[in-house]
Amino acid sequence: MFPLKDNIPTDRLAVVTIAIIVINVVVYFLLQKGGIFSGPDDGIVVEWGAIPFEFSHPGNECVVLGQNIGCGTAAEIAAENVPTSQPATWVTAFSSMFMHGSILHLGGNMLFLWIFGNNVEVSMGPVKFVIFYLLGGLAAIGAQIAIEPNAIVPTIGASGAVAAVLGGYILLYPRARVITIIFIIFFFTIVELPALLILGFWFLQQVAFGAYGLANPTGGGGGVAYFAHIGGFIFGLAAIKLFASRKKDYSPPPKYPVY
Questions:
Q1: Using CB atoms within 10 A of its CB, is residue 76 exposed (0-12), middle (13-18) or buried (19+)?
Q2: Residues 115 and 5 sit within 8 Å (Cβ to Cβ)
Q3: Is 205 helix (H, G, I), strand (E, B) or coil?
Q4: What is the DSSP track for 109-131?
Q5: Alpha carbon distances (Å) from 53 to 5, 50, 80, 215
Q6: Distances (CA, A) of 134 to 7, 51, 96, 137
Q7: What pLDDT digit, counting tens, does each position of 113-122 carry?
Q8: Is the separation of the CB atoms in 8 and 173 below 8 Å?
Q9: All structural domains of the chain with their residue ranges
Q10: Is the four-CA dihedral 201, 105, 162, 251 of positive or negative sign?
């Protein structure tokens, strides 16, 4: 399933949602030095990504050592002749939310943010939305650290914060519908599906893949921080009513047939 747009009208421009999308794009192409056919610079990802080991082992830092990532105290890293001017660990909790591992990673997250974020922003206003989005991202990182405290692979991406938006959206607009492309082998069709179905199915996927990754720690996760998605989504479900001033479901009746 590939969502295109929802059927919830907005009565004002979602400036924060647009700004977040622009920031993510700028960070990927200019600061991370990522490309369309190439990923970002590994050193920048390790430096500014959120590494669970650094959070669970205060005073330790992780850097690129040849083809690997090495972690230790500043003195231990200096002994390897590697510069130790790393950003504060708490800073990476925020910077990692605006970093991505590939153009597809960036595009997928920004698509979901654009489809569902504008209505959530309008429901609470720009200032509250900024706070909601950042707290959702922190909750996502916290969940990933709790599950894998010794992981030395950087956690990057807006998906945790976006997951919080999805969790809030599903409660705000339970009757919303989303125009979606369905691929069937070499063919595709465009249908209008309930947002509850699409987002509910997405969340169950994260839970299933996350559980599979715990059962198969040597390769079940595929490099995806599923528990960050789960943590962000649950935060969105739990916190949306504290932030949203519009409690009513404004979903209009469907305009398209469902196949």
A1: middle
A2: yes
A3: helix
A4: HHHHHHHHHHHHHHHH-HHHHHH
A5: 38, 9, 19, 21
A6: 26, 18, 11, 5
A7: 999 999 999 9
A8: yes
A9: 2-50+89-243
A10: negative
**CA–CA distances in Å: residue 158 to residues 56, 61, 164:** 22, 23, 10
In terms of CATH, what superfamily is 2-50+89-243? Rhomboid-like (1.20.1540.10)
Neighbours of 118 (CB within 10 A): 22
Per-residue pLDDT tens over the stretch 104-159: 999 999 999 999 999 999 999 999 999 999 999 999 999 999 999 999 999 999 99
**CB distance 165 to 133 below 8 Å:** yes
Residue 155 DSSP label: B
State the amino acid at position 144 in one-letter form: Q
CA separation for the pair 155, 101 (Å, rounded): 10
Tokens of 226: 């599923």
Closest CA to 160 of 49, 31, 64: 49
**Residue for token pair 């991370």:** 32
**12 is written with which tokens?**
């004002």
